[in-house]
Write the structure tokens for this entry.
Amino acid sequence: MPAVCRLGSVARGLLFYVRGHSRRGRASAIIRRDDPLRMGAPEGRRRRGAEMMIARLRELYSFRELLWALVVRELKVKYKNSALGFFWSLLNPVVTMLVFTFVFSFVFRAGIEHFPLFFLAGMLPWNFFALSLNRATTSMIENANLIKKVYFPREVIPLSILITNLINFGLELVVLFAFLLAWGYFFLPYLPVVLLAAALLFLFTGGVAMFLSAAAVYFRDLQQLVPLGVMIWFYGTAVIYPLEFIPASVRAILMYGNPMNPLISLFRGSLYGLSWPKWHVLVYCAVAAVAAFALGYGLFARMARNLAKEV
Amino acid sequence: MGGAGGRGGQNAMAGVCGAVGGAEGAGGGAAVGTIDIRDLWEHYRLYHDRTHSLKEVLVRFRRARYENLWALQGVTMRVEPGEAVGVIGANGSGKSTLLKCVARVIEPSRGTVSVRGRVSALLELGAGFHPDLTGRENVFINGAMLGMTRREVRARFDEIVGFSELEQFIDSPVRTYSSGMYMRLGFSVAVHVDPDVLLVDEVLAVGDEQFQAKCRARIAAMKARGVTILFVSHDLPRVQEVCDRVVWLDRGVVRAEGASAEVVQEYAGRSE
């Protein structure tokens, strides 16, 4: 019983950080109509969630130039003053690939054909996901100065990071495509699946990243916790090993409990496996991605309200 | 693309601000350049021993203790198009908070603010500047921050650089700039936004005497062109020089409002 109580308190504590407005003695996250802090809006004219979301997206669209300027800034800063430029972003996956190729081909003798290709087909999407989460988590705090002084839709900041990483991911994929073709993997018929998988991966990552970027302002420990969590998540995802290595009893849990597994399997199945995905995997990925995005964006919108005062 | 007449960005979102959906009526019929503030309340949380760490949340599972600090307590004011209004008051009287609400940086706790037209806020000079990028690159980023389209920045680029007098350094990384140069470039971008409403917060002390005179002339020219100005400053002579009307804020409420000379005089002779 005490354990249950404690869990409840922890949950309540976390909820405090997640909610924009929190007032003593209220357990519910729903904003009450008689809340004196929100009396600005006349009762009848309160906009509904969907309507507000559309207004928000429309405003975001009017700030597309800023979004793009920030993406360009991010890219320029990343590659400025470095002789190798974009190739630095390839170096990381290539070095990890070499290390794991050595481990799996010579130490464990796993017997995976063309291990580097197998590896990269899973590692590149994973890298997009992991880098985006890590960078997004600190992004709002790093840009505190801007948030306190200039108005713009706050989602511009995490989105600029996501788009920058997406561009990098795209370039890395092109390099991988060249390798695949050179080794005789004729993946072109499956390209639409890869593009769809990239879109779903973007949505899924976007939802999680946006949530984390705003939550980290209220709960600063996330800056330390997220990289740790991402590392654990990495080993729970079939990136360096094939899913078939996992005992069948656990496999289903891993496959459906962790949306990154089916998402990565879409990439790997098409590029390395040269096969069509199963329908239920595709549907599951789509549902998980859209749900994560909607939920992440919704929570973000709620937390973003007070960002300038809390960051 | 941008919006109508080449104005994108902030123009599109001008209008309703404040508590969610509450202000549709407030500024509806007003002319471009109007600032309408109605019963504005804004509070901050003053944390006592803020818990920001996991351990404290888990171990104490108490909420962070805080007091609500009301920086603005029912401010109502209206600025007509083309008017220059000064806001004066002691430190902590809510001047900057008021300006931030008008600039939409923070949302009012209560009440509405509606601004018609494009807003340029001189709250932060050089917003978004990255030290490793050149002055040229930063002008575009800063312009986008202030709601300009790339095309607009390109069209005004020479003017912006000319105003800042940094032609020679425009292709050097901003980290090599002196703080004066940095501010000059930031100021230069901000005054070239071509806004309907200009918000100024204590930033005129930029650069040397000569550059300051230039800044003043620029603001006077904008005023002459019919730009609405909301001017927050401690520099009373300057306020009197720029503004037609002055509002005196005292601990979050309007204490006096009227012709610049009178209010400034009253404020200067105040008994605390």
Observations:
- The mean pLDDT of chain A is 82.
- Residues 115-142 of chain A form the longest helix (28 residues).
